Amino acid sequence: KTTEAPGLFVFSELFDHPLIKALDEKDASSDLALLQLFCYGTYNDYKTAQVSYPPLTPLQVRKLRQLSIISACYSQKLIPYDYLLQMLELSSLRELEDLIIELFYLEAACGKLDQQKGLLVVESAIGRDLRETELPKLCSDLEAWCSRVDVVVSEVVGEMEKAKKLKHDWEVSRAALTEKVNLLNSLGKKRLWKI
């Protein structure tokens, strides 16, 4: 039932539940495989090894298709409708748009549907469960991101220093100009007094 729940897109915590831990891997292997599919897999993974899983309900198929869209959002920011239709084995553009719109309403993905160009324009998507083997890549991605942030911060600090110097130079120039204007004004007043 959990794999059918609307708005639920993270499942790995279920592996820590006592009832799941108590399952005998031999007796419940297809159920455990199904849970792993919803944690880490896609609709294509299901279709490739369909015999390894129990039959899916229509709600589970819908959820797995949505999880597949979320996964696609990680690697692409402009996803062609044709690609999604083929990947999800959908025949109707309306079905695809309904899946995506529901993801938007559930705040599982954010973006736009560009119907003229036939694209899903991705702004962001929620994270999916990670296998432990994926953690090193995540760490290296985060380290690379931190390095890019450090470079940007250094550039911003440099620009701030330039701006401070320009402001200081402008203030010095303005003070000198004000002093000259005051001097000229005082000289002009002295001449008027003589006349």
TrEMBL record:
Residue span(s) of domain PCI: 1-127
Family annotation (InterPro entries): COPS7/eIF3m (IPR045237), PCI_dom (IPR000717)
The keyword Cytoplasm appears for this protein: no
Keywords recorded for this protein, A-Z: Signalosome
Keyword Glycosyltransferase: no
Entry GO CC: COP9 signalosome
PROSITE patterns: PCI
Top-level taxon: Eukaryota
Family listed: Belongs to the CSN7/EIF3M family. CSN7 subfamily.
Official protein name in the record: COP9 signalosome complex subunit 7a
Species for this entry: Schistocephalus solidus
